[in-house]
Amino acid sequence: MCTVTYIPSENSIYLTSNRDEKNLRAEAIYPAVYKHASGRLLFPKDATAGGTWIATHENGNVVVLLNGGIVKHDPVPPYRRSRGLILLDLIDGNNPFLTFNTLNLRNIEPFTVVILDDKKLYECRWDGSDKYSSSKNNSEPHIWSSVTLYSNEIIAKRETWFKEWLGNHPFPTQEDILLFHQFTGDGDTRNDLLMNRDGEMLTVSITSIKLEDSSSRMHYLDLRNNKTSVSEFKIKKITGMLK
Q: What would the mean pLDDT of 99-103 be, rounded to a whole number?
């Protein structure tokens, strides 16, 4: 939930997230399909709060969470609801972007959410007091890094790595993207995409969604246990991925 990329191709969209977490946090539950009020959702589940940091709906929508809003904040718990459960509130419907704009976020810790809603791409931020949202070009790649873990200088450096990698991978596969998320950096383990800060805060998993007109494929890398999970389900609605 702390490094996210969006990469469109001719027939697919890839959304990929590195989950940077405290080592003491319970291991997540592998991705599975869950029945919710609006339909089926596919997501890995946080074992503590029951929420998630990335989810896709059978209608083709996708939401991805990053910790922090506009700037790094000091947590002031207790919060009314976990951000991972808020993410499920957003995806459990037909219009997650509209839901973000109307949902009561009072006493929710600041966060950023990348929303793919009916093929339109949005960046939405909550800073603890106010909401901010903007449309992003869905035909161009994008990268986000959590403001709670990375300075503006490091975020800019990561954007440079991303641009350089895209120059060498103009037509990346999901496997290429997963490798980018695992092995990109300059040897600074505190700030490389696969980060490790003294074994206390580290990248524990990578989740990548490949969204096509008729299906959504989620590739999950459990880095703690060196295991992989691949899940897929049918998309009911989307046609013409980037039209």
A: 98
